[in-house]
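Everyone, describe these structure tokens:
***
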Amino acid sequence: MVEIALAGIMGPMIRTTCLFLLLCTAGAPSLARATEEELQFRMSANLSVPITDSLDASLSISQRYRKSSDQFLVRVTLDKQLSDRVSIGGGLARSKSGGFAEVRPHQQIRLQFGAISFRTRLEQRFFEAHPRTEIRLRQRVQARLPVDDRTHALAGAEVVYVVQSRFPGLDGRISGARASIELRRQLSEQLSARIGYRLSHSWRNAMPDQRTHSPTISLGMRF
């Protein structure tokens, strides 16, 4: 049953990701708009605990330093491994930035094919300052390649599609694209560290687009 469902899901996920990469490499017309550049910095810590042989719980805490206002985010996620290739999950995040809070439930499915993985995530964003819920669809593709016995390189790309905006009249649009590269080093059996770089581009209505350069550093612990 899992393999039958996989066959039906895999095609749309791969097509969506390939379309995003094609737009980036070909140069979408909107990329020619006025763009503001910004340097940010991200720090995060992740804790993962197996509940059963196929169910994991994780806690992620991140701090994002940026020009406008810093952002602090806490996310809890449950992931269920259905087969060697398929996992599903869901969770809840809460963030605070500039004195405003956001609550963000999410549901996701992940497909793994050797070194390549695809993730589709649906998010519902609830804002204190906006009565309308924003719904986003995020599609990511990631490659994981070994450098040595304890080090891996990861490269990924993601497109963000707004199904329903917090602002009326702005539904059904691509709001952002992201590309990242990381080095992950296993420090011990339980502890790992990552350093990386993320490039993000946001398309903003009636404002210049924003392109963000973000060095990242992360620690991970798994029991």
Q: What stands out?
A: Residues 1-7, 24-29 have pLDDT under 50 and may be disordered. The chain has one helix and twelve strands.
